[in-house]
C-alpha cells in the first residue's frame, strides 16, 4: 500500500514538475507572441491597422469587404476544384502503374465517381461569389466528398496490402491545397477540425489498434502541424487582401472611406432598406484655401484630420462617412428624416466651430467653420439627383454667408 502511495506521489510530483515549466513557457510564448503579432497587425503609420479580431472572423469585416473577399475566394475555389478534378482523375495513371489489378479495378472507378461529384461545384462557384452561405456550403460539400474518397480508398486496403504513399498523404495534400483560400482563422479552424476528425475516425474505424500503438497520435500530430501551416498561410492572405482593400477604399489622411466605396455603401443602404428614409449631409470647410495659404499645408492636413475625428464622435458607428473631395465630407444617416439630419449637421457645425485646431508646428491655434447641405432620400430616389440637390443646398449655405446648415429645396 505504502509502495503504491509512494509511486503515485512520485508520478504526481514528476507530472507537476513537468507541467509547471511547460505551462509557464506556454504562457510566456503566448503572451509575447500575441503582443508581437498585435504590433505586427498595427504597423501602418496611422496606427489604425488590422485588428486581431479581423483575422479571427469575417463578422468583423465590412459588408463591402466581405463581398470583395468572397469574390476572390470564389475564383480560387474554382481553380482548386479544377485542379482536384484533373488531379484525382489523372492519378489513375499512377494507380495503374503502382497498384495490383484488384485494387486498381476498384480505385479507378472511385476516382472517376469522385471527380464527377466535384464537377457541379464548378458552375456553383459562380454563385459563391454572390453569397457567403453558398461559399461555405460548397466548401463543406467539397470536404465531404474528398473525405469520403479518403475513407473508401483506405478501406480498399483493409486486406493488409501496403498503402501507397499517395493515399496516406492525401489529407495532408488536401490541407496544403486549402491554404490558397484567404479564410479567417475561425473558418480555417473549422475546416481543420473537420479534416482531422474525419481522418482520425477513418483510421480508427479501419484499425482500432492504431489508438494503442501510437499510430493515431502520430497522425494527429502531423495533421495539426499541417493545419497550423494552412491557417497561417490563409491568415497571411487575408491580411494582404485586407491591406489592399483598405489602400484602395480609404483616404490615407483621414482614414475615412473614399468616394467610390461611399457610393457603393449608399446604393446598398438604399436597396436593403425599402420604405426607410435616409439623410445625406454634404460638408465643406469654409475658406480652407486661406488656411493652407496662411498657415501652411501641414495645418490644412491637421484640420482635415480633426474634422474627420469630430465627424466620428458626433455621428457614431451607424453613420457612413466619407471624404468626398479635397475639403468636402459626406455623411449618410440611414433611417433618419430631414429634420433629424439637419439637427445632426447643426451639432457637427457647432462642435467644429467650438474646437480650435492647434498648429502642429506649435504656431497657435485657429477656429475652423464649415457649411452643410442636407437632403432626404427614399429607397426609390435617384441617387445622382440627390447628390446634386445636396450640392446645391451646400452652395446656398456658402452664399448665405458660410458657417451654416441648409436643407435641400
Ligand atoms: N492641406 C490640404 N489641402 C487640400 C487637400 N485637398 C484639397 N486641399 C485644398 O483645399 C482648397 C480648397 O479651396 P476652395 O475649393 O477654393 O474652397 P475654400 O477656400 O474652402 O472656399 P469655400 O469653399 O468657398 O469656402 C484648395 O486650396 C486645395 O489645395 C489636402 O488633402 N490637404
Automatic annotation (TrEMBL):
SUPFAM superfamilies: Nucleotide cyclase. The keyword Transmembrane applies. It is an enzyme of class 2 (transferase). Residues 276-409 form the GGDEF domain. Its EC number is 2.7.7.65. The chain crosses the membrane at residues 77-94, 106-127, 139-157, 163-181, 188-206, 221-242. It holds the Pfam family GGDEF. Keywords: Membrane, Transmembrane, Transmembrane helix. It catalyses: 2 GTP = 3',3'-c-di-GMP + 2 diphosphate. InterPro entries: Diguanylate_Cyclase (IPR050469), GGDEF_dom (IPR000160), Nucleotide_cyclase (IPR029787), Rev_trsase/Diguanyl_cyclase (IPR043128). This is diguanylate cyclase.
